[in-house]
Amino acid sequence: MMASYAMLMVMNATEAPFEAFGKEFVHPVFTQLVRRRGADGRIPVRTLDRGASSSAAAVEPAGYPGGSYDTSLLVKYEHHVARHIWFGEERGPKKELKVAVHGLKLTSRVPLALPPQMESWVSRSDLSSLQRTSLNKIDTNLVSTFVERWHLETSSFHMPFGEMSITLDDVACLLHLPIRGIFWSPQDVTEELAVELAVDYLGVSQGQAQSHVRSCRGSYYKLEWLYDLFVHHRAAFSWAYATRAYLLMLVGSTIFADKTFTLVEARYLLLFRDLDGCSGYSWGAAALVTLYRYLGDASMYSCKQLGGYPTLLQCWIHEYFPTVGKRGENWKPADNCGLPRAMRWSYRQGVLKVDDLRPILDELTPADVIWRPFEDHRAWCVFDEICLYRGCLKWGETVVSYLPDRCLRQFGYRQYVPSPPLDCMMATDIDVDWISYHQSVIAVIGSSTVATTPSDAVDGYLEWYYCVYHPRLVPPHRDAPREVPVPVYDVGPSDPDWARVSTLIHRYLRQVNAEEEDPQFSDLFEALHISRSH
């Protein structure tokens, strides 16, 4: 393989990163060799012919056209949707995913006010914010285009300028869910146990529970059935039964939404057996684990659906990418009175399809990103250092990697070449690691410094990035070289407000194909240069 991860890590420790590879290292972007692709589109690594020199082999490109060239990191790329898109292969006639959306139904099912007896339990559960955070609809084209850039090996979106991810801090600010707390390890729930749980904790008869679980064809409850139980028990003043049905419907319509679109797993009822004791969970981690899991599934070419909480993903996009996609804004951050940040946004029907959005994302620069969008939200959501924990998160039997060292710019730190991703299959003490998070936090930020500009990165980072990843989805014209050049970006303004001005001007000039020599755009170009100097 062209360059091992250990060799690449040397780049972070030297002023001249490529000297670490020795004189024989040549980045694949700059090679002119042409070789036949295999049936899977991959360029095979060729063994040396007799008499061939080792230096000649060192410059031969390996991996996939457009990246990754070093295939040691993205081990599942062969099955990733991005590989197929590069060769013009789509998931199906519809390029956008089918997304689990419950916002409209939830709006009609959540009352303006709960009875005081229920309100007390719902408030103590730390889930009450989920009653109002859901978007009524989801822009499936926008969401799908970002999913195509998600890679489960790194738990991150691969943008043209580096990695970004949905972090624990993002969840805390957008949803106001607690991120500290314990992980949940449930027992297996069979259909028989699902019936018993419904009888004991939802107040239904044995026959009614059996009939309902049988109709679900598994250990599930229907969301509509739970809503009906909530209404029934509320009218009968059976507050505990009503609260459990309501909370289970709430999480099944938001953070635990799955690809059935109508059901919720019966095992989640176990979370609400003790209504006075369900507040100790890390609900923020639960939301993130579930979404990471479904993003990983949906990034594969064979998958056509996305589960999890799509509002979390779309509102994250709205916060970080102000010029991508259409959105309504209910209030400005300065006017917030302590509401979850997701409630800032409302759905507006977008006109751009997946085909339109792919090249837009390919052309994004660091200046198009608001790297720290929640700094004006700290009065209601103080930053917690546990968000810099590097390790595995788990919820139930699902375990995912949480790797803030790959998106340090979102935390205000200079981005370095990160360590290899974790193998969560080998993790044995996740709960202990989570409790003793300080050590991993020190390791994450100890190798970095505070960013001097919002998009600050070490020298050589992008060269490494374009070697091990596939940062662009739209291939160049077939007559052009298939290798992707490493971009060079302006430093950009250090002030977030000026960065926003710069982004908006730059996006408009790009949309109209403006040339700096054109007199009609001279004032805008002058304004762009002024904004970038601050």
Automatic annotation (TrEMBL):
<dbReference type="GO" id="GO:0010073">
    <property type="term" value="P:meristem maintenance"/>
</dbReference>
<dbReference type="InterPro" id="IPR044824">
    <property type="entry name" value="MAIN-like"/>
</dbReference>
<feature type="domain" description="Aminotransferase-like plant mobile">
    <location>
        <begin position="130"/>
        <end position="465"/>
    </location>
</feature>
<dbReference type="Pfam" id="PF10536">
    <property type="entry name" value="PMD"/>
</dbReference>
<protein>
    <recommendedName>
        <fullName>Aminotransferase-like plant mobile domain-containing protein</fullName>
    </recommendedName>
</protein>
<dbReference type="InterPro" id="IPR019557">
    <property type="entry name" value="AminoTfrase-like_pln_mobile"/>
</dbReference>
